[in-house]
Amino acid sequence: MTISTKSAKKEFMRSHIFTSESVSEGHPDKICDRISDAVVDAFYKLGVKNGTADQTRVACETATTTNHIALLGEFRGDFESIDFEKLVRGCVKDIGYEQKGFHHATLKMYNLLHAQSAHIAQGVDQDGAGDQGIMFGYATNETPQLMPAPIQYSHDILRVLADERKHGSLKSILGPDAKSQLSVQYDANGKPVGVTSIVLSTQHLNPNLSSNEIHEIVRPCILDVLPEGWVTSDTEWHVNPTGAFVIGGPDGDAGLTGRKIIVDTYGGAAPHGGGAFSGKDSTKVDRSAAYAARYLAKNIVAAGLAEKCTIQLSYAIGVAQPQSVYVNTHGTGAIDEAELETFIMNNFDLSPRGIRNMLELNKPIYERTAAYGHFGREPDQDGGFSWERTDEKSPASEILKSAPKPMV
């Protein structure tokens, strides 16, 4: 098969500013995502131990407010051996909450999980999708992680601050709750070249610290994260712009699983199908197909077949194969998008089972995804973030190497 070089007209580019935000692991919604994914991992650990990982089914929602956490949802598996209260308290302790209104040792926990509906199970057990829906994956060569710069660096800032808070110089200064936001300047060629605005709101333990003092404390960490030359004298800084931020987490605001889907994905730089990831096992295409779409898009960009790539997959509940596969290389592709769609459909099994096998998703690898993005992360030796692989261990990388080369 010869793949033509015809592709969509290159997108019109102009100098512009694009903004994305991230939230820390101590944000109320992210606490809930973490706990929900810890529940998923607990069931997968049992499944791996008992040889039934492929039959693991979890849909766990978590809700939290001042010193209260509730688990809601459904499951299939041996739940009696899981200590849910220990799991919940362990997550909150590791995040770092020991304040009067939200403390890992004193919070009240409610377990309202129940067995999975038989009517849902009947379709999934026949290798069909767990629900209908659309999922998107995206990749761009503007950062080494093949992620949009605004969301990647927003994540990195909070990850560094969390590490310093837990293990470094900021241990007695910052609290777990924080939000970051970057406005990134793009040139006329669509390349990120600087930061016009930095926004950071971070919980702090000393109520007497001013916004200016917090600014001076966190500034070195932020500068270490951003590329050299991106911060100039014209860059606007807004650190704790409302003033004191001592009451944080669920003591200051309620939290729910799945309310940070744009933070979890591409920061608004690409479409989102609408479904959250956390709390869902890998038969749920909201999660697994979004991972597969990112995996394909990232490998296409890594292989030099496009500078940026969006992939959409769609599914019907109880039906195995996707209803559609759509590829958009935004005018940067080396080969025709329609032919690339055909190549993907002919070479990749994008059924829920095929995705689980390709990315080895029937493992306890999900709690670590709950904060700082599901994408743009380093693959782990135990299979975590397998959808981020572009090396020789990536089936997609090997398959794309066999794709016919475009004619010049």
Write up this protein:
With 408 residues, the protein is of the alpha+beta class. 30% of the residues lie in helices and 22% in strands. It has 10 helices and 13 strands. The chain has helices spanning 28-50, 84-95, 118-124, 149-167, 211-225, 261-264, 285-302, 337-347, 352-359, 395-401, and strands at residues 16-23, 57-65, 68-76, 98-99, 102-103, 108-115, 133-140, 174-186, 192-204, 236-239, 255-256, 308-315, 324-328. Strand 4 (98-99) and strand 5 form a beta hairpin. The chain is flat, with a radius of gyration of 22 Å. The model is unreliable at 1-7 (pLDDT under 50).
Summarize the structure.
The chain has helices spanning 28-50, 84-95, 118-124, 149-167, 211-225, 261-264, 285-302, 337-347, 352-359, 395-401; strands at residues 16-23, 57-65, 68-76, 98-99, 102-103, 108-115, 133-140, 174-186, 192-204, 236-239, 255-256, 308-315, 324-328. With 408 residues, the protein is an alpha+beta fold. A four-stranded mixed β-sheet has the order 1-8-9-10.
Keywords summarizing the entry:
408 residues; alpha+beta; four-stranded mixed β-sheet; 30% helix; disordered N terminus
